[in-house]
Amino acid sequence: MLGAAKDRPARTYRGADWVEWVIVLVACAVAVVGTMAELATQPHLPEKKAVSAAIAAVDTYAESAPGESARPLQRKASAALHSAWTALDDAAPLFPRAPWAGRRMTTLNALRDDVESAEYRFNVRLGDAAAHYFTGNRLNSDASSGLFDRMVGSAGASSGRPKARVLLSHALSWPSENLVTASRVAVATIIAGLVTLALNGEHIYWSTAFAAVALHMGGARIIQSYRAVNRLAGTVLGIGLFTLIVWASPSPWSLVVILVSLQLLVELFVAKQYALATLFITPLALLISVGGQIPDDPWPIMAERLLDTVIGVVAAFIAIWLFGRAMPAKVLRAQTSRTLRSAAAFISAPDDSDSRDSLYTDLRLLDSVAGAVTTEEGGSDAVHNGREIANIGYLLIGTRTLDAARRNDARIEKVRTLMLNASE
Asked: pTM for the complete prediction?
């Protein structure tokens, strides 16, 4: 808000220079209240939702019969467990032993117990899938000893958010989805910025921000395209809302109420429905850019906002569809190779937590990349190979359950050997 105010001469709203500062302070307070509203009323709602989703996904997978039809359920259960652990890790207080953290830790520990129980069932089901895949028979967990419980519990379906060094090593390994996304954002923002400068635009950060927002989350190109179109549609509707505000010509304090309300609506919707949030972001940004006053002639600023949005969206489309068109398949092949190497490391040291965490991280990334490529290209050979490697990777972890149940088979060792050879 203050940054926007610096781009123009100091203005007043009908002689009330202090109104702008009131708007800034009140809007900041509303942003905090709007963002933290759920924390005050339902402090553990995100964690409870994530844990419930994980339990439901695992139950669905556990009740399914072994076979190819269960693989999507397996991937969904693994991803849900990862999300649940990550939510619980993020919710942990900075000082868990502090007196004021006791009640929070009690709730989080109860949720952790629920996730651990779901994770146990997931690992048992992985063992059943591995037994069916490698031997053609089902796993009889009732006949196992206490060793089975210890081994299954140690397998770990997810360890939550990976360590920073693991995330960085994956992100900085070319080609990776992170680097491809960053490259597209760089191309789009440079194009948008140069075009805006060539047109002598006053708000170059608008066009560059619009281009970056459409691309920064990555994913399939069609999904990024939808995001860009949503941005454009939200801006058009937002300009219409701004027009209504200008037509109403509100008083200074009415304008404060309008700004506060817009800020609150943005905070409520931006994380859940961005297309709807842009409807409120646009009039809020326009009012801020003119210093919190109703302009006598609103058409120039409205036209510039629309033009900058179009520039940003077109630049995003250029980056999406003309830059790195072959990259999704290359990223998939590279991620498949990384998963094979992680599988080899896990086979060599199945009790090492780092190798297990690295394999799970690669399996989740492989699922994500394969899903994005499937959306764009359908069931190509690269997608089929990636899915098959991911499935075998999960089953290799499931063989830890077989080991726990003392049910080794020569075919298991053969597949392990094949995975080791494929990773070389």
From this structure: 0.72
